[in-house]
Structure formats: structure tokens, C-alpha cells
TrEMBL record, chain A:
GO terms for molecular function: ATP binding; ATP hydrolysis activity. This is ABC transporter ATP-binding protein. Residues 4-230 form the ABC transporter domain. The keyword Transport applies. It holds the Pfam family ABC_tran. The keyword Transport applies. Gene3D superfamilies: P-loop containing nucleotide triphosphate hydrolases. It comes from the Bacteria. Keywords: ATP-binding, Nucleotide-binding, Transport. InterPro entries: AAA+_ATPase (IPR003593), ABC_transporter-like_ATP-bd (IPR003439), ABC_Transporter_VariousFunc (IPR051782), P-loop_NTPase (IPR027417).
């Protein structure tokens, strides 16, 4: 079952189209990474999921319900850490946790204690005295303290030092394995997405250009060096989308595609080509190929 | 709802306390000053008779403590400082959340926007009413200290009119706070609207625009009974502005 389903969702701000025909499915229990360059529509997608905005077109459901209509009920099941995480500076860390817990009708004790064993955040201090990284961590405390079924994190590790970032990702992994938590994670830090996510979607200019499992993408995206016979070229390859092609000489090409290797070899053979070499690419290179295309 | 109200109180308690203290000091001082003004302006004897007559005509009637409190407290100091307090409290209510980027946090919690607005309105309007009651108490205390206790029916009626008028100002500030995502601009616009209406109300064809009318007329001094029309107009205006605020907030995207 899918926790989040977006089908053909568009969102415009006046003349500006932030999302255009966006499709996305987030399976239950997964750690899902939404990746894309700045301005590609990641934060807009998240705001739509929380009912903070309404889509201009398309269908969006979270736990099978519409966020704009059933927002209050849905948000009780969701923990959310915004990208630009501002909190009430006059409150202490503990006060904001208790305030949040009262809004969710729950107690914070147990979950906060578990997180405190890892991060030791000074909860008695006013938020005004917190660093950016400490505020991000407090955001994680707030989001996890209410035992959500879905955790939505918008650029959560931005501003964290490498050690805390590693602990942060560790806590996410632990929480996912401890209970049936689904994590929706937006980031442009490729290494952490590769490390923690099982499924990813790449976004470019307001829509998803790829959604698949991380391991599947890494296993299937290849650069094929192909020699084509006279009168043939990569344009003759059928049924497989070529991501990038580059002529090395008159009849030899580097062709990049996301496909099963056997299928790719067959497609090249059908197009009059012979595969000379096959190379894999690092995950960040694959991401660049999709978002720059 | 209780948690939201606690948050509003926690956030605005200093403003409410300062408002109460400041207004109370002014109320007390205005009443105590009556002791010196009751017999006319000191030094009037030295003013040439033709000017003294003119000044007497222009001056409010200070021979009656009710008239003095009406002209100097209810329709002047309380109105002006109370309006500023109403604008400061409510002008930042929603605009402050947007400006300080806490709106995303607050509106992504499992509470309705109506509840968030209601908590703000209940606490901040409550703080405003408290400031009016405490400071009017101060004004009455000052009058008692100088041995000129005002008529209680007059104080009650004038306080009711003041509360209605200040709530109307606060409702206007709430509406602008929802419309304008900047605290200072929301406050300036609210103040600007009240000033423009006050100035326009000075001209006879537009007298009905004058927000002073919401405080009731000077007839309260002679007949200390709440005047139905200003009270109903104030309540209806406030309800309309709060209703529009709620509707706009529901439509807004964060």
C-alpha cells in the first residue's frame, strides 16, 4: 500500500508553474528520498502533502485521504520538519516539545529521553540561544516525539555537522526499523540520500523524471560503448529511452540508459550495434544526468 | 485549544502587562489631575478677559467629574492608548507568525486554522479588555483619592462603550494582520485606517465614519445608560471583520 500518491499534480503561483503533472508514490514503511535542484518543486510538494497549499490540478492523497479536506486528521499521523525551521524563540526546547505534544494529545517523555541519549540537546535553554544545527535537531525531536506514522523532512540535515548528521541519519534508520514508520525525505545532499533511502524520485522543473529503488537505479544505469554498423546510429534503438549519447568517432558511441543489461544488448543488436564496453556510474553522476537533461 | 491559548499568553504576556500598567498609570494620573483642573485652568486670572472667555468656551466642562472623565479619559487617553495597544497586540497576531516563519510550524500541526485564530482572538481580546478594566479601575481610584467619585452607572456604561470600540479596532488589526504578512505594515495600516476615519469624521457629511462614535456620545454623562446603536454597530463591525479574517485565513496558502 502507498502512503502518498500524487497523480498528475500541478501547482501554479500566478504565472509561475511550481509543479507540472507531477507523479509520485511512496510505499508504506519506506525511506523515500525526493531529490532535485533548488527550485525544482520539492518544498511545494511537501506543502501540498500537509494541506498547507491546494493543488491547481491533479490528485493527491496521503493515507488515502485528501490533505486539504482531511488535513487536521491527517496531520495527527504526520511528523514534519520544515526546511526553514523557525520556532518561538522565547520558549525553551522542553516548552515547545510540551506545547507540540498537547496539540497532538500525547506525552513526550519516552521518545524525547531516547533521543536525548544520542544528542543531549540542552532542552532547558531558550530556543533563541540555539544554533541552526540545534534547531534542526529540535525539529527532529518534535517530529518524532508524537510517534507519527509518516515523517516528512524537508532538507533536514542542512546546517548539521558531519558527526551529528551521521547520528541524525542513524536515528531515522533506527526509528524506521523500530516501528512501521514511513520517511519522506527531501534533500540535495546525494550521499545521505544514497546511504539512507531505499526509494528515490528525481525532480526537475516541477515534475518527477525518475522514481525507482536506489539499488535498482545503481544496478541498471550504465554507459554502453557501442559500435554501430554503416547507416545505423543510437536513434535506431527502440523501446528503451536513451538518457545521453555522445559520438566517440564516426561509428562508435557512448550511450547511457537505465535498463536491464540483457534488454539493452538486445536493443543495440536490433539497431545494428555491437556493445564494446559497459561501465557503471556513481549515484551522484546518475542524478546529474537526469536533472540536467 | 488550551495549548494554543497558553502559547498566545506566553508570547504576549509582557505586552499585556505593560499595556495594563501604562494605561493604569495614565488613568490614575488623569483622575488625580482633576484636583487641579476642577476650579479651572491655573493662571486664568492673568489672561485678558476676552481670551479667557474664548478659552472657557473651548474647554470641556470640568465642573462635573463624569464630564471630566468622559472627555479626558474615555474618549481621549483610553481611546488613543487603548487603540495603540489593540493594534500592537492584534496587528502581529497572524502577520507575526508569517514574518517570523513560525506559521509553517503552527499550521502544520493537527489543529484547524479556525482554532488558531480563535485562540489568538480570545487571549488578545481578553488582554485588551483586562487593560481597559484595570486602567478604568485606576481612573476611578484616582477620582476617589481626590474625593470626586464618579457615578458608577456612568463608569459602567462608558466602559462598555470603550470595550466595544477597542474590540472593533482590535478586529480591524486582526483583519489586516491576516491580510498583510508583515507585523509593522499590518500595525501601520491599522493605525492609518483609524486616523483616516477620524479625520474624515471631522467633516459633517462623513461624521458617521468617526470611530469616536463607537464610544457613544457625551449624552452618557447626563443619561448613563448604554446606547444601543453604537454598541450594536461596534459588535456587528467586529463580528464582520473577524468573520472575514477567518475566511481569508482559510483560503491562504503557507
Amino acid at each position: 500500500m502507498n502512503v502518498i500518491e500524487m497523480i498528475g499534480v500541478s501547482k501554479s503561483y500566478g504565472q509561475v508553474r511550481a509543479l507540472e503533472d507531477m507523479c509520485l508514490t511512496v510505499p508504506t514503511g519506506s525511506i523515500f528520498g525526493l531529490m532535485g535542484p533548488n527550485g525544482s518543486g520539492k518544498t511545494t510538494s511537501i506543502k501540498l502533502m500537509l494541506g498547507l497549499m491546494e493543488p491547481t490540478a491533479g490528485s493527491l492523497t496521503v493515507f488515502g485521504a485528501t490533505p486539504s479536506g482531511d488535513g487536521m486528521v491527517l496531520r495527527r499521523r504526520i511528523g514534519f520538519v520544515p526546511e526553514d525551521f523557525s520556532l518561538y524563540p522565547h520558549m525553551t526546547g522542553l516548552e515547545i516539545l510540551e506545547f507540540n505534544a498537547r496539540l497532538y494529545d500525547c506525552s513526550v517523555q519516552e521518545n524525547v529521553q531516547r533521543l536525548q541519549t544520542v544528542f543531549e540537546l540542552p532542552l532547558a535553554r531558550k530556543i533563541a540561544t540555539y544554533s541552526k544545527g540545534m534547531r534542526k535537531l529540535l525539529g527532529l525531536y518534535i517530529a518524532l516525539s508524537t510517534e507519527p506514522e509518516l515523517l516528512i523532512l524537508d532538507e533536514p540535515t542542512d546546517g548539521l555537522d558531519p558527526v551529528v548528521r551521521s547520528h541524525f541519519l542513524g536515528v531515522l534508520a533506527d526509528e524506521t526499523s523500530r516501528r512501521n514508520l514511513t520517511v519522506f525525505f527531501s534533500s540535495h545532499i546525494l550521499s545521505e540520500v544514497e546511504k539512507i533511502c531505499d526509494t528515490v524520485a528525481f525532480m526537475r522543473a516541477g515534475h518527477t523524471v525518475l522514481q525507482d529503488e536506489v539499488e535498482s537505479i545503481k544496478a541498471q544505469y550504465r554507459v554502453y560503448t557501442v559500435r554501430f554498423g554503416a547507416g545505423h546510429s543510437p536513434r535506431d534503438v527502440k523501446n528503451i529511452t536513451i538518457q545521453r549519447e555522445r559520438a566517440l568517432d564516426q561509428d562508435t558511441w557512448d550511450v547511457e540508459m537505465l535498463a536491464d543489461q540483457e534488454q539493452a544488448r538486445t536493443a543495440f543488436a536490433d539497431a545494428g550495434g555491437t556493445v564494446l564496453n559497459v561501465q557503471s556510474l556513481p549515484f551522484d553522476e546518475i542524478f546529474m544526468r537526469f536533472v540536467e537533461a | 485549544m488550551k495549548a494554543l491559548m497558553w502559547k498566545e499568553l506566553r508570547e504576549n504576556r509582557l505586552k499585556i502587562i505593560v499595556g495594563c500598567v501604562l494605561l493604569s498609570i495614565i488613568g490614575l494620573a488623569v483622575s488625580i489631575a482633576y484636583r487641579f483642573l476642577e476650579g479651572g485652568i491655573p493662571g486664568m486670572a492673568q489672561i485678558p478677559p476676552e481670551y479667557a472667555d474664548l478659552i472657557k468656551k473651548l474647554m470641556p466642562d470640568f465642573s462635573n467629574v463624569n464630564a471630566y472623565l468622559y472627555s479626558q479619559w474615555f474618549s481621549k487617553n483610553l481611546q488613543q492608548v487603548g487603540a495603540i495597544l489593540a493594534i500592537v497586540l492584534l496587528g502581529s497576531a497572524v502577520a507575526g507568525e508569517r514574518e517570523l516563519h513560525t506559521a509553517i510550524f503552527l499550521f502544520s500541526r493537527p489543529v484547524s486554522r479556525g482554532m488558531i485564530l480563535a485562540a489568538k482572538v480570545i487571549v488578545l481580546f481578553g488582554g485588551l479588555v483586562l487593560a481597559v478594566l484595570v486602567s478604568t479601575g485606576g481612573a476611578v481610584l484616582g477620582a476617589i483619592i481626590v474625593g470626586k467619585a464618579p457615578q458608577s452607572a456612568f463608569v459602567l456604561a462608558a466602559t462598555l462603550h470603550s470595550v466595544v470600540a477597542l474590540i472593533a479596532f482590535a478586529s480591524l488589526a486582526t483583519l489586516l494582520s491576516v491580510l498583510v504578512p508583515d507585523r509593522v505594515k499590518a500595525m501601520l495600516f491599522s493605525g492609518g485606517v483609524i486616523i483616516v476615519l477620524s479625520v474624515a469624521g471631522q467633516f459633517k457629511p462623513f461624521h458617521w465614519l468617526n470611530p469616536l462614535a463607537l464610544f457613544g456620545s457625551s449624552a452618557l454623562i447626563q443619561h448613563p445608560v448604554p446606547q444601543l446603536v453604537p454598541v450594536v454597530v461596534g459588535v456587528v463591525l467586529s463580528a464582520c471583520m473577524l468573520g472575514i479574517s477567518y475566511y481569508i485565513l482559510q483560503q491562504q496558502e503557507f
